[in-house]
Amino acid sequence: MVGVSGGIAAYKAAELVRLLISAEARVRVMMTRNAQQFITPLTLQTLSLNPVATETFSLTQESEIGHIRLADSADAIVIAPASADVIAKAAHGLADDLVSTVLLAARCPIAFAPAMNVHMYEHPAVVENLAKLRARGITIVEPAAGELACGYEGKGRLPEPAFIVEELIRMLSRQDLAAERILITAGPTQEAIDPVRFVSNRSTGKMGFAIAKAAWRRGATVRLVAGPSSLPTPYGVERIDAVSAADLLRATSLNFPWCSVLIMAAAVADFRPAKPATHKLKKNPKGMTLELAAIDDELPRLAAQKGDRLLVGFAAETEDLESNAVDKLRRKMLDFIVANDVSRSDAGFAADTNVVTIIDAEGRRETTPKLSKLEVGDVILNRLVSLRTQRSKPSDSKAHRLASASN
Ligand code: CTP
Q1: Cα(373) to centroid of ligand 1, in Å?
Q2: What is the whole-number distance in angstroms between the Cα of residue 298 and the centre of ligand 1?
Q3: Residue whose CA lies nearest to ligand 1 atom number 4
Q4: What is the DSSP string of 51-71?
């Protein structure tokens, strides 16, 4: 359910509804009287494929919709844009129009996406009202900063409709990673030959970025250390850019004490030019030899100080997938490894789909069918959750010993 209140950003509700429909949501729209000054119910009715509710007590609408039925039928409600007025009404439990009445009757998760003049947004009354809503478990999608329609600069712009959709997806997802701080590495690294050339690999970062997106949706706090990649940062995720393997591994080590889970999905270079030139190398008709120096593996060093952290590695292989992966799992002292056949065109680097085999330290194996990288991300995260649950339960023998000791 999308609630639209009065403000110039109301026209962006059209884009929000369109995005929700293309994400296959069933969308109902309700509007305040003021919202209808900015955008017509007909526009939102056409886009949402459903009648738009505007009146609490309309004979025709009431018999068809009913504000209680409207509140009951929603899986989630987002008020976008949320004006200072609707925020105040919700904070104080007023119910003098359709939107505020539905908000009071609703039992589903609710989000507000405020949009208003920066001085209004910073007014202590609005700040207090938003704090009240937050304290009740309502999600506030922070407005963006920038040029405002009123001519002022500052915080108050309606967040990108795509970000509001992300918040809704998170609200409706199981929050089984809410206690986790997940550090994910992704993408290739670039090792300089000279100021304009480098050695790299075919990784695009798609798999690591997809895991970051899936983990945030499931409630995790996510930091993404990304090698050079043109992919947009997943919403809600903190991104740390790196270029070379040295940069990426340094950022990983620095953030390791912060995390509760490390997922090394990056394709980190194994070699780097031993002596990168400080100037552009000139053409040489005789050719040239590039001396490469080995780059140390970071995972075993981090594994030695892991404590309760879970460590997940990737194995990019073109042959002997499982035996190479098992070897890496042991060598790198991982909790589990995700083995990837990168010679396939529908899996591995650059593809939007993937097929992986997950092998854990106890020898359990699971091969996924061909799935989108986002779905593969969820399979990996499911394994993480079950490992965490397994670790947090006292083992049977420990429980047995405790039980017999207390008898
Ligand atoms: N990795 C790492 N530090 C490195 C190189 C790799 O932590 N210097 C991590 C990768 O992020 C991945 C795992 O180790 O999670 C396996 O990477 P991969 O390149 O498949 O394996 P390598 O150990 O480099 O072995 P090989 O290249 O011989 O297959």
Answers
A1: 20
A2: 9
A3: 297
A4: PPB--SS-HHHHHHT-HHHHH
What are the residue ranges of CATH 3.40.50.1950 in the chain?
Answer: 2-172
Question: Ligand 1: which atom is nearest the Cα of residue 315?
Answer: 20
How many C-beta atoms lie closer than 10 Å to residue 146's C-beta? 10
Name which CATH class applies to 181-275+291-392: alpha beta
Half-sphere exposure in the Cβ direction for 368 (13 Å, CA): 24
- pTM value is 0.91
Which residue from 151, 6, 148, 156 is spatially nearest to 85, judged by alpha carbons? 6
pLDDT tens profile 173-201? 999 999 999 999 999 999 999 999 999 99
Rounded Cα distance, 230 and 190, in Å: 14
Residues of the chain with CATH 3.40.50.10300: 181-275+291-392
What is 2-172's CATH number, 3.40.50.1950, 3.30.365.10, 3.30.750.200, 1.20.1290.10?
Answer: 3.40.50.1950
Top-confidence range, 67-71, 104-108, 390-394: 104-108
Give the ligand 1 atom nearest the CA of 296.
8
Residues with a catalytic annotation lie at 150
Q: Whose CA is nearest to atom 17 of ligand 1?
A: 315
pLDDT of residue 61: 62
Calculate how far, in angstroms, residue 297's C-alpha sits from the geometric centre of ligand 1: 7
pLDDT tens-digit map of 135-178 = 999 999 999 988 888 788 888 999 999 999 999 999 999 999 99
The H or E element containing residue 154 is: strand 153-157
Residue 92: C-alpha distances to residues 34, 50, 86, 133 (Å): 20, 30, 10, 9
Contact 163, 235 (CB under 8 A): yes
Q: Determine the residue of 250, 328, 329, 332 to mutate for testing ligand 1's pocket, defined as the one with the most ligand atoms within 8 A of the Cβ atom.
A: 328
Residue from 255, 271, 332 to probe ligand 1 pocket by mutation (most atoms less than 8 Å from CB): 332
- CB within 6 Å of ligand 1 — which residues? 185, 245, 264, 266, 268, 270, 295, 297-299, 313-316, 328, 332
Element (H, E) at 182: strand 181-186
Nearest CA to ligand 1 atom 6: 268
